[in-house]
Amino acid sequence: MSLAHPLRGFLTRAPRWVFVVYAMAASFATYFGMYAFRKPFAAATFEGETFFGTGVELKTAFVITQVLGYTLSKYAGIKVVSEIAANRRAMALAGLVTLAELALVAFGLLPDSLMSAALFVNGLALGMIWGLVVRYLEGRGSSELLLAGLSTSFIVASGVVKDVGRWMMHDVGVSEAWMPAATGALFFPTFLLSVWLLDQLPEPSAEDIAARVERRPMNRAERRAFLSRFALGLVPLFGVYIASTAFRDFRDNYGVEIFGSLGYETEPGLFTRSEIWVAFGVLTVLAALNLVRDNRRGLAGAFAVMVGGAGLIGVSTGLLDAGLIDGMTWMILVGLGSYLVYVPFNTVLFDRMIAATRVQATAVFAIYIADALGYTGSVAAQLYKDLGDPTTTHLGFFRGFAYGFSSLGVVCLLACLAYFWRRSEAATAQS
Q: What dihedral angle (degrees, nearest 10) is formed by the CA atoms of 152, 153, 158, 161?
């Protein structure tokens, strides 16, 4: 798909602000489009249906099987995405999303007993998309800004595609089974255009490499060396990410049910309205990190953002329970808090960590280990809700989860900050 197009030459010579705006727009549109193939089914409730007569709700089974496929793809991506050559990224993006749409068509055709299998394939196809897009953006002097813009894509897209799905079911008359495929088909042409535009980005310049360390593909020995070198800090850090992924996914997948319990069930544009505020907050905070040129301070700033996000989750839930804020405000605040913890893992945290410690690695490798572990935790949390705590409402479970995640997250993140600050200090002394 990638050709030597004049646009790439223009971007190489263009002022930095032109490059940044172009790269943010192309990456945002690409990942926004991917969400049209991943999340619209969450707008349906499949109410009253169970998975093969078990205690697991049918929607939970759909969520889990898609996440299982997504998780397996993340594990595969640890190797594939960290090694893939630049000239193969665009074809990989187009091919994987085509497979995901075909799986959604199968979801509409198959009986209830086999629909989960279609979503498993859908998740398997989509799990590497994030890493492929990040590979275009990491290792640049403006990576924080670019990745902050990219991160807002899945926050906004998650709300928009669910609202599109609700519109298709309620106003157009598309069934719950066919709504995901119809939503994907609506976004497919713009996704392909966005991939082509993204693929015109030039590789990082010499100035970028000097600022952020060269990001070349990693072989097996280098991947093992990276994990061994930072194991004491990575273990609790990955633990926080497991909890943050499970928390974020529960809010995302069961937002319809949680909003319904809060009294907002029939309001149009509900998800878009809540997620726009979340996206704006995340973009503002993370873009500010781009102003920090020193990599050690930038790393500390990323940890500070995550600590603040974890604290916000607990504080806002306490305010809701005290009757000081309404349900919509609470959902916005816990959404903002959860994404302030979650998004840095997928964007600035590992990019700054690599630059601050001067280690030869790619941020995508660390991101994909975290993602693989995180989605495993997401599956565990949803199974526990249906099988271990079936009488609690989705809202009640989510509120309890908020308190536990907030307190654990703050403690672990502060400990990780201290560890990586010392490691970056040692690297600075040796350089």
A: 140
